[in-house]
Amino acid sequence: MKITNICCIGAGYVGGPTMAVIAKKNPHIKVTIVDINAERIAAWNNKDVSKLPIYEPGLAEIVEETRGKNLFFSTEIDKTIAASEMIFISVNTPTKTYGKGKGMAADLKYVELCARNIAEVATTDKIVVEKSTLPVRTAQAIKSILHNTGSNVKFDILSNPEFLAEGTAVQDLLSPDRVLIGGESEDAIESLAAIYGSWVPQDRILRTNVWSSELSKLTANAFLAQRISSINAISELCEHTEANVNEVAKAIGMDSRIGPKFLNASIGFGGSCFQKDILNLVYIARSYNLNAVADYWEQVIILNDHQKRRFSDNLISTLYNTVSGKKIAMLGWAFKKDTNDTRESAAIYVADHLLNEQANIAVYDPKVNSEKVQADLNYLNTRSDEENKDLVKYYDDPYEVSKDAHAIAIMTEWDEFKTYDWQRIYEQMKKPAFIFDGRNILNKKEMTKIGFEYSSIGQ
Ligand code: NAD
Ligand code: UGA
Fold first, then answer.
1. 342 with 376: CB under 8 angstroms?
2. Cβ(73) – ligand 1 distance below 6 Å
């Protein structure tokens, strides 16, 4: 099918950057991103591209170049679906918070709503592309909804999972390791392959059946997260044996069979997807009674929770077993550097634990604002909004946040943290001045020389 109009439902961290790059590389195709969230669409349409709802290096430039030419952001969902030959579903698929599968299975209500919406308004043939991360065999449900409309419209369903990582989304999209397209109809597969073919070499565009494509996405995230839990497990052993986890990671990473990536020990992985996708994988395995498989992958999450807890326990015990009334400065709130996304950030859980011990939390993050920090803590429902407001203060300045602090906890690996005047920070803190480096980004020797009591992960 010749594609001249694309609709993407969902203007989020995936829909926004992915469609911006597709539009940039396919100037002959009109790409419209639609969303039910009018505020988000308004932010995407903000004249000042520094105020887009998502921060990703390089994204503002691409939006500026394409917006209003062949990239559009709109709340007119029905009209855009009707006018497009290809529709991407790129909506959120969070873990269910109710009913069967609560806390484990993916909540597919948003995806189903999209399928029903498409079924209702389509009057011409459509290629429907699953861009959201979905449990294996979801395409079956979408197909069933679309094929039972009673109309003569022909729908082809493709799975095209997204592998971009936040903070490097634009770079990942411009030169992906691979693009994966799962489907039945060769014509539909080739229509999508041609769009990516504008910039991705053909040998990097994999064609598979729908189920392999859906399952490959969950598997890729599970393998990546598993590496982090593996190195984090070793980090705890290092702390008891005087081995250094950075040295161990380097030594094993130079084995070409293991490779060096995703071996940074940390406070634990965060982000909207690793935990949700593994929980979903575990749920699917259990639903087939594959309990050994489910237990195996569940351990990745158990270890990650342990790592977050271990970090705050260590902080409390080092501060003479109490943080009550003490100012703990948190540098970083985002789940990783170069993003304003805080979903499932380890910082939220560490802060919550310290707040239970009556600490006064002070936060600074270069891209996350105070409203977000408050909302993240309120979402946990551990305390009232007033209590959180009372105990958690937000600062716009890294030197102010650390003034009179008993300890600094580094939660995100922002590059700017390495460039601070640590002597100045030391002088204005309470003594002894503690640093808990949850990202291993500072130099232990230098910090100790200044006078800090410095501890990091796995050293
Ligand atoms: P997001 O929450 O940032 O964006 C989803 C958007 O969909 C929201 O703006 C929401 O308002 C909109 N939406 C929901 N239901 C809608 C409907 N019925 N009609 C119109 N709009 C609707 O989510 P995200 O981070 O972009 O993730 C989307 C999917 O992509 C998820 O399945 C996720 O697992 C997957 N994924 C995410 C990443 C990532 O880095 N964030 C990477 C790869 C894959
Ligand atoms: C991850 C995957 O890397 C993407 O391929 C995938 O598309 C995406 O999930 C998704 O499906 O949402 P993302 O979560 O954006 O991307 O970022 P990552 O770079 O994978 O980092 C995830 C978390 O792991 C972060 O908290 C990061 O700090 C942590 N991490 C990463 C470590 O603790 N150690 C490492 O060595 C690497």
1. yes
2. no
